[in-house]
Amino acid sequence: MLHFKYLFPVFILAAVIYSVHSSLADGHGPPPVDQVAKMARYIVHHSEWMSLAYQSKHNRTLDYPMARVYSVSDGLANSSTGIPYIMASPLDETIHDLMIPGNERASVIMSLSQSHYCYEQNYDPEDPRCAQVILTGKFVVLNNETAEYTRAKKFLWTKHPVMQNWTIEEPSHDWKFAKLQIHHVCVLDTFGGRKFPTVADYFRSDPDRLTLHSFLHQSHHHHDPRNVYQS
User: Fold this and answer.
1) Ordered structural domains, the chain, with CATH
2) Is residue 21 very low, low, confident or very high in pLDDT (cuts 50, 70, 90)?
3) How far apart are CA 197 and CA 209, in angstroms?
4) 94: Cβ–Cβ under 8 A, 6 or more apart, which residues?
5) What does the pLDDT look like over 143-193, one tens digit per residue?
6) Mind spelling out the 3-state secondary structure of 172-190?
7) Which of 52, 59, 93, 229 has the fewest CB atoms within 10 Å, i.e. the most exposed one?
8) Strand order in 132-141's β-sheet?
9) Over the stretch 59-102, which tens digit does the pLDDT of each residue have?
10) How would DSSP label each residue in 186-216?
């Protein structure tokens, strides 16, 4: 008969494997901080909205940096493209300005402060452990005859179903589907400064797939006893 001391490691391993499986199935929290591209994809996929920054061309704020919040989706619940899509109207001054030739450069920012994660960890939104991603690139309005346009509409109307009503209630707004064509990725997810994964690594990463090593690292990271912002 096997002694308990030999069975104990087996029990521990089984418990860990079960925890990993359960965490993946339940959509466990963000990935560990050593997987920067995955962290960026996770934040984008799980964000409901983003702040879009650009250079204003309006008379009152000419050439000043401006920003506005937009609802966002990068895919369906169980799939992610990594591309932030929005639906908006050219009557919106932000969209109007971004459609001016030569003024398409923009940045978007999304943060885990939107989720319950930072609250549960007692992280202030400015705390770097309440991770945020900044995507910089070119604002692109999608051609309504393309497959990407159809996909963007499905992504946004699935995640934000009220949007479909806007097109019915305000058809004169000439609603557009648009995206940020990503040129740079910047992540702030822990102490020590910003990180810059490549765009290629960003698109190669799966936002919700964790390995056993990742899960163990993640569990340690999530239970960091510090709860006061440090620089």
Assistant:
1) 36-203 (2.30.110.10)
2) very low
3) 18
4) 52, 54, 66, 68, 88
5) 999 999 999 999 999 999 999 999 999 999 999 999 999 999 999 999 999
6) HHCCEEEEEEEEEEEEECC
7) 59
8) 65-71, 49-55, 105-111, 132-141, 176-188, 85-88
9) 999 999 999 999 999 999 999 999 999 999 999 999 999 999 99
10) EEE-STT--B---HHHHHH--TT---HHHHH
Structure tokens given for 63: 């050439």
Calpha distance 59→93 (Å, rounded): 11
In Å, how far are 54, 145, 156, 204 from 153, measured between CA atoms?
A: 23, 12, 5, 23
Q: Which two tokens stand for residue 144?
A: 């309504």
Structure tokens at 72: 């966002």
* φ, ψ for residue 88, nearest 5 deg: -160, 170
